[in-house]
Amino acid sequence: MSAEVDGRVALAAGIASVDGVSPLNEASRIAIASGAPPRVDETAYEGDLLVGVAYAAGDAPVELFVEPDHRRRGVGLQLLDRVLDQGESRFWAHGDLPGAQALARRRGLTAVRTLLVLERDTAAALPDERPVEGVTIRTWRDEDTAGVVAVNARAFASHPEQGAMDEADFRARTAQPWFDPAGLFVAERDGEVVGFHWTKVDPPVAEGGDVGEVYVVGVDPSEQGRGLGKALTLRGLHHLATLGLRRVDLYVEGDNTPALATYEGLGFRESARDVLYATGA
What we know:
This protein folds into two domains: 3-108, 3-Layer(aba) Sandwich (Aminopeptidase), CATH 3.40.630; 119-273, Gcn5-related N-acetyltransferase (GNAT) (Aminopeptidase), CATH 3.40.630.30. It is elongated, with a radius of gyration of 20 Å. Strand 2 (49-57) and strand 3 (62-66) form a beta hairpin. It has an eleven-stranded mixed beta sheet with strand order 1-2-3-4-11-5-10-9-8-7-6, sandwiched between helices. It is α+β, with helices and mostly antiparallel strands. The chain has helices spanning 3-19, 26-34, 75-85, 98-106, 145-155, 167-174, 228-241, 257-265, and strands at residues 38-46, 49-57, 62-66, 90-93, 110-121, 136-139, 184-189, 192-201, 211-219, 247-253, 269-278.
């Protein structure tokens, strides 16, 4: 990883410690670590100090962030104008903080998508697990990989990020330091994978982490309406409850009414939101 890339990662980490939310999502961090060529690669300096970044890889929206002590000095607007001039039209605002909202208003960007962050306290009681007839839920094995990727593609066919996960993406995620095969659960019917729940703890508990995540719950469309999504969610939540975590988070689309009802019924409440802003909406 080059000094330039190291600077971006360090800047993002410093911003997260101040704002309480990372300005780079996991996909971007994986792309940076792998050395993937960025589509957008703009920086701003004060002398030798990196104070602002606009970054995007693949077809992902741009993530733009400015060092907190250098905000309200035009750095963000300068970066935004540079990437708008390149034809970029979509921008993530992780946490949808007031500064991001103000920047969007300055250039007439409109909120087109909301990703909610929900959380629940692990001290709250969980419902007992209930089996789904004909389905076995067990921990993942390597030979399940193709089945998990196929179910993911069908379950998230209309999702702009998650639905694009292929086997290489899956392998990249399982290579991350947080990955624990004991926290990836697979639902099987007649020898075929029909659903999964991937949990996450980042950083690992051994390094002081105290927050778990419902990372992805995917159910094959053929199994919808049978209670499998709730059964998988509960299996993962019961697993996370055994790890001594303080709370569990998850991300869900703001317009996914059925999922929101399920999660709220399990004690999740909104704690933050990411908003996608776009031009010409």
